[in-house]
Amino acid sequence: MPNIKSAKKRMRSNAKKAEVNTFVSASMKTAVKKFEREVKAGNKEEASNNLNIAVQRIDKAMSSGLVHKNKAARLKSRLVKMMNTME
């Protein structure tokens, strides 16, 4: 446990940031899984809606620095490819 005031504050801010980062990354993964589930079920409308949500969540994770831009591009490319194979 730190004794210095700034170190204590740093611990508090790191805990808050970790909580937000966990939420953003978990919501991204959940959105991707929901999309994949709809693709397997063959629901085009639901898959299309979930694709938009998943892309938004991936972009959010990328902008906050949780996911590298190349990984985000790769994920989005794979999701769009899955959507296009449905049609």
How does this structure look, described?
The chain has 87 residues and is mainly α. It has a single domain (5-86), classed as Up-down Bundle (Methane Monooxygenase Hydroxylase, Chain G, domain 1). The chain has 3 helices and no strands. The radius of gyration is 17 Å and the shape is elongated. It starts with a helix and ends with a helix. The model has no long low-confidence stretch (mean pLDDT 95).
Short description:
It is built from 3 helices and no strands.
Report, as a whole number of angstroms, the end-to-end distance.
57 Å
Note the total helix count. 3
Helix content: over 70%
Q: For this entry, what is the oligomeric state of its chains?
A: single chain
The total number of structural domains is: 1
- CATH architecture level-2 label: Up-down Bundle
Following the backbone from N to C, one meets helices and strands in this order, namely: HHH
Please supply descriptive tags for the structure shown above.
87 residues; mainly alpha; 0% strand
